[in-house]
Amino acid sequence: AAVPVHLTLNGIPVTAEVAPNAILLDVLRDRLGLTGTKKGCDHGQCGACTVHLDGRAINACLRLAVMCEGQAITTIEGLAQEGRLHPVQQAFLDHDAFQCGYCSPGQIMSAVALLADPRVPGDVGSVREAMSGNLCRCGAYQNILAAIQDARL
Ligand code: FES
């Protein structure tokens, strides 16, 4: 039987009736219409499904929706405010930090979380390490790193 899960989704209270075994990624995309969050591997390897759960980056493919009861979720759709791109989104555009773009939402969500995390030092090696859960099959890593370092300023 479906159970209700209450979320604050991109700042808006939402209630969804979900199966107890429904995966957050599928609920976001298929039930709530937020298809900006991508499904790549569906088993925690690629980072395409990265969203923020109470401000922390998580893989939405590894999380049951019911585990998020009462929590705040931010997806790529929630980053731009008042018609303006988030600075990290703008930096990705400025640096051509994508080719096909499929990994970009996850890359950007991870980048926003790491730039907000005072435990992650700003050197390139630390940023690479912090971003290592986000794969880019096109190999746009240099431009992704440049965009993140630019957005830090
Ligand atoms: Fe979740 Fe690949 S789809 S990590």
Short description:
With 153 residues, the protein is an alpha+beta fold.
What does this structure look like?
Residues 3-79 form the 2Fe-2S ferredoxin-type domain. It holds the Pfam family Fer2. This is (2Fe-2S)-binding protein. Keywords: Iron, Metal-binding, Oxidoreductase. It is a single chain. This protein is of the alpha+beta class and 153 residues long. It has helices at 24-31, 87-94, 104-115, 124-130, 141-152, and strands at residues 3-9, 12-18, 50-53, 56-59, 72-74. A 5-stranded mixed β-sheet has the order 2-1-5-3-4, sandwiched between helices. Strand 3 (50-53) and strand 4 (56-59) form a beta hairpin. The radius of gyration is 15 Å and the shape is globular. The model has no long low-confidence stretch (mean pLDDT 97). FE2/S2 (inorganic) cluster binds next to loops.
DSSP strand content: 15-25%
Provide the spatial order of strands within the biggest beta sheet. 2-1-5-3-4
Mean of residue pLDDT?
97
Instruction: Output the CATH homologous superfamily of the largest domain.
Output: Beta-grasp domain
Classify the secondary structure makeup into a structural class: alpha+beta
CATH class of the largest domain: Alpha Beta
Ligand kinds: FE2/S2 (inorganic) cluster
Question: Number of helical runs?
Answer: 5
Gross geometry: globular
Runs in which pLDDT lies below 50 for 5 or more consecutive residues are none
- How does CATH name the architecture of the largest domain? Roll
Residue share in helix: 25-40%
Q: Would you give the CATH topology of the largest domain?
A: Ubiquitin-like (UB roll)
How many runs of DSSP E, i.e. beta strands? 5
Number of domains: 2
First-last Cα distance:
49 Å
Rg calculated over all Cα atoms: 15 Å
What's the helix-strand series? EEHEEEHHHH
Describe the largest sheet. Answer: 5 strands, mixed
